[in-house]
Amino acid sequence: MVKKLKVGIIGGGEGAFIGAVHYRAAMLDGYYELVCGAFSSDPEKSKRSAPFYHVEAHRAYGSWQEMFEKEKAKPAGEGMEVVMITTPNHLHFPQAMMALDMGFHVICDKPVTISEKEALELEKKVAETGLVFALTHTYTGYPMVMEARQIVASGKLGRIRKVVVEYPQGWLSTPIEQTGQKQASWRANPKFNGPGGCMGDIGVHAENLAEYISGLQIDELCADITSFVEGRQLDDDASVLLRFKGGAKGVLHASQVSAGEENDINIRVYGEKGGLEWHQAEPNTLLLKWLDQPVQILRAGGNYPNLSEKTLWNTRTPGGHPEGYIEAFANLYRNAAYQINHFKDKSNPKPDHILYPTITDGVRGMRFIEKVIESAHSDQKWTKF
Ligand SMILES: NC(=O)c1ccc[n+]([C@@H]2O[C@H](COP(=O)([O-])OP(=O)(O)OC[C@H]3O[C@@H](n4cnc5c(N)ncnc54)[C@H](O)[C@@H]3O)[C@@H](O)[C@H]2O)c1
């Protein structure tokens, strides 16, 4: 049996959003045990958060630097080996750099940093250290997203012509950052969030999903961004036209002022012979569309031979028993654990079943955010990626 990886978390303290999601996802398959945390920038809050995570009080640290140092100093086999970074965006870079320098593997939330310059520096550090760096672009962890990627790669849809990706949310339709709402407050401040508001928060997920499923790389883009809510410093809505290498075209729409929308990320990809469609709100279903046949409905866990081995490997329940957001996160965690453990667990089928976004996705994501802003502010509009 492969030993559990000892993991620590930064962020996720009282009132936080995504830290607890990372925790639940990491625990799902039993490959990790949470041994320590720097749960908050407030040392008292960090201590108070420990029981929720079943972490011993003395391993709830007052700062992430203290956590790195004290865990590193523990006898071999006792200290943290992997760190999960679930803090606001401006902290990802210093935390990931120090973690890698000290020999810890990193599982980091997006956007990877607050500039492409930082992302490139981090990419160099990952290469130098040879440690695992996984980036939680959650949507790539869904089984039917993996299936969509493989269908495109198989050529069944023919040459890809068009990619339409949307990520509408409505929660920033009013200036809630001015009321002190925790998640909105730092996201509305470029110092903590980085330069792209809606683009940095959710546009970057849409960009990643479009490139992941289509297997194509954005080559040029033309963007229109807006801050609809009065007094807001960063964009809360964007429409982006895309040109991919090889000639395919695309449309990316992301908005946090689409009143009433939840997290309706969805994508359609069309080739010469057919198309596909996936919605997060119905994540276990993938629609395939053909020129000469009725629409085909593929379901995660389906008891038929259409689904690929990779998709089945990343599916936990039989068809009809819903899987969702936590499981998609958990797939990324489990796949990163296999990589960290050098595939020692023999229950693992094949290394190429192991998919998770890396620092390369992070660099492209930061470039995307910066290029969207550049295009939106330029008269020329079309901007080389
Ligand atoms: N992958 C996804 O689907 C997804 C979803 C939501 C958020 N995110 C990303 O996750 C990150 C966090 O977002 P959130 O919505 O959970 O924010 P949040 O404000 O709810 O939580 C941030 C946490 O970080 C802690 N923190 C801040 N400074 C710290 C410090 N110096 N030391 C230790 N802890 C510190 C805060 O106390 C809080 O616990 C962001 O980068 C965001 O883009 C990703």
Radius of gyration: 21 Å
* Class computed from helices, strands and strand pairing: alpha/beta
Distance between the termini: 46 Å
Note the overall shape: globular
Calculate the mean pLDDT score and round it. Answer: 96
What does this protein structure show overall?
There is one protein chain. With 385 residues, the protein is an alpha/beta fold. It has 2 domains: 5-138, Rossmann fold; 142-317 and 358-375, Dihydrodipicolinate Reductase, domain 2 (2-Layer Sandwich). 34% of the residues lie in helices and 21% in strands. It is built from 12 helices and 14 strands. The strands form 2 sheets. Strands 13-12-11-10-6-9-8-7-14 form a 9-stranded mixed sheet. The protein has a 5-stranded parallel sheet with strand order 2-1-3-4-5, with helices on both faces. Helix 4 (92-101) links the parallel strand 3 and strand 4 (105-108). Helix 1 (18-27) crosses helix 11 (325-340) and helix 4 packs parallel to helix 5. The longest helix has 19 residues, at 359-377. The chain is globular, with a radius of gyration of 21 Å. The model has no long low-confidence stretch (mean pLDDT 96). Bound molecules: nicotinamide-adenine-dinucleotide. The site of nicotinamide-adenine-dinucleotide (NAD) has 25 residues, from helix 1 and helix 7. Nicotinamide-adenine-dinucleotide binds at residues 10-13, 16-19, 38, 40-41, 64, 86-89, 91, 109-110, 136, 138, 182-183, 186, 201.
